Amino acid sequence: MTNNFKHTELFGGAITTQLPAGYADVSNIREVPDHQEIYLDASGFSSIIIEIAERVTDPPTDHEALEFHFQDIVDEHDTSKIWRTDVARLPNFPSGTPSYTLLATTTPPPATNGNVTRALTPRFVAVLLTLIRLVPQSTDIVVTVNIPHIPGHQEPEDGEVRFEDGKFG
Which of 44, 49, 115, 127 has the largest count of CB atoms under 10 Å? Predict the structure, then answer.
């Protein structure tokens, strides 16, 4: 599998990055808030969301801010589990820029229409969240990659994903 990336300007060119070539800018089809950039996988269900937010200072620690941003995006009816957090390594940012990653899953509640289930309802969604804390600017940049696990779509060869064993599909 070849990973092709394209140079992408975000927020009117204020930030540039490399995004997968197969991802499309959602703002071409619907309105997106000014503080967000959203890209969808044109051949699947995954998404990348880049958000500029006011720096979270309550909770006080960077780790708690990471979890705060995650909880902010989780649907209140979903079950969520954080599998791992770590320090992010961002070579294009100044040394010492606080940055962290979080790997989690969210699971939607079971369908409530009797035995009716929607074919494209994910069994779970893998979430990779990166928090970049721009302290002098009082800003948090939150990058979220959402990868829904929909049975029958883009399954790993053996069909198994086991986060507890470090098997991510």
Answer: 127
- Helices in the chain by DSSP H: which ranges? 62-73
Amino acid at 105: T
Which tokens is 58 given?
A: 């309550």
Q: Kindly state the average pLDDT of the residues 23-43.
A: 94
Q: How far apart are CA 101 and CA 132, in angstroms?
A: 9
pLDDT digit string, tens, across residues 136-154: 999 999 999 999 988 776 5
What is the C-alpha separation between 66 and 31, in angstroms, rounded?
Answer: 27
d(CA 128, CA 102): 6
Within its chain, how far is the Cα of 154 from the centroid? 18
Whose CA is closest to 97, among 57, 136, 51?
Answer: 136
| Nearest CA-CA partner of 74 in 110, 105, 117 | 105
Write the pLDDT tens digit of every residue in 96-135. 999 999 999 999 887 665 555 566 778 899 999 999 999 9
Q: Which of 47, 149, 151 is nearest to 106 (CA)?
A: 149
CA 98/CA 46 separation, integer angstroms? 27
